[in-house]
């Protein structure tokens, strides 16, 4: 099923208590520092061109308050579930692969039950113009070849078991907590209320 790029469809959110959570294995970090991540980005860019990545805004609710599931690393770094695409991989396949790897329950029964993720629509496209940490919610006019393109999709889940890597926390953060809070969550997560208001 192709992913819609805009949708006015009604999205039903399940409450957090409808999911069961259990610890899985440790999720390895590919890079030990930002500098190492940028070096790897440059190496990949030299090999295959602009890197593509996908993230999921997974919506649930807690006591009637809409929330977004985020991972937290080292008690201070928040991230949306997702990751880099293989050069020939389409966005829906890649996003499902990353969600399965990160939040999948990891059992044969779980894998056989599917589907586990409802991908609704594209919320935003962010660009990394240079080999640094800065993303922009548009492609700067003076940049002819961005180094990375990140697409963020709206995702919901059916009632299911969710795996949580041992070295991460999975938090349901109320949407209003992100608004105008770049200092805590960074520019992409703090833009979530704007993305969803569309």
UniProtKB/TrEMBL annotation:
Claim: Cytoplasm is one of the keywords in the record: yes
Top-level taxon in the UniProt lineage: Eukaryota
Recorded GO MF terms: mRNA binding
Pfam families tied to this protein: NUDIX_2
GO CC terms: cytoplasm; mRNA cleavage factor complex
UniProt keyword annotation of DNA damage present: no
CDD domains the UniProt entry points to: NUDIX_Cfim25_Nudt21
InterPro entries in the record: Cleav_polyA_spec_factor_su5, NUDIX_hydrolase-like_dom_sf
Family: Belongs to the Nudix hydrolase family. CPSF5 subfamily.
Stated role: Component of the cleavage factor Im (CFIm) complex that functions as an activator of the pre-mRNA 3'-end cleavage and polyadenylation processing required for the maturation of pre-mRNA into functional mRNAs. CFIm contributes to the recruitment of multiprotein complexes on specific sequences on the pre-mRNA 3'-end, so called cleavage and polyadenylation signals (pA signals). Most pre-mRNAs contain multiple pA signals, resulting in alternative cleavage and polyadenylation (APA) producing mRNAs with variable 3'-end formation.
Quaternary structure annotation from Swiss-Prot or TrEMBL: Homodimer (via N- and C-terminus); binds RNA as homodimer. Component of the cleavage factor Im (CFIm) complex.
Protein name listed in UniProt: Cleavage and polyadenylation specificity factor subunit 5
């Amino acid at each position: 099923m192709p992913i819609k790029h805009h949708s006015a469809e009604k999205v039903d959110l399940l409450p957090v208590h409808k999911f069961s959570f259990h610890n899985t294995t440790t999720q390895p970090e590919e890079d030990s520092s930002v500098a190492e991540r940028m070096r790897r980005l440059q190496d990949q860019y030299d090999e295959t061109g602009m890197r593509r990545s996908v993230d999921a805004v997974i919506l649930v609710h807690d006591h009637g308050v809409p929330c977004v599931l985020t991972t937290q690393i080292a008690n201070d770094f928040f991230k949306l579930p997702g990751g880099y695409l293989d050069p020939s991989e389409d966005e829906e396949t890649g996003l499902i692969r990353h969600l399965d790897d990160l939040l999948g329950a990891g059992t044969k029964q779980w894998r056989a039950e599917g589907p586990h993720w409802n991908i609704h629509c594209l919320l935003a496209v962010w660009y990394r113009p240079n080999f640094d940490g800065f993303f922009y919610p548009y492609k700067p006019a003076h940049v002819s070849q961005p180094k990375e393109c990140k697409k963020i999709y709206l995702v919901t889940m059916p009632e299911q078991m969710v795996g949580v890597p041992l070295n991460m926390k999975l938090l349901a953060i109320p949407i209003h907590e992100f608004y105008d809070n770049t200092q805590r969550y960074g520019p992409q997560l703090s833009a979530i209320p704007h993305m969803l208001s569309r």
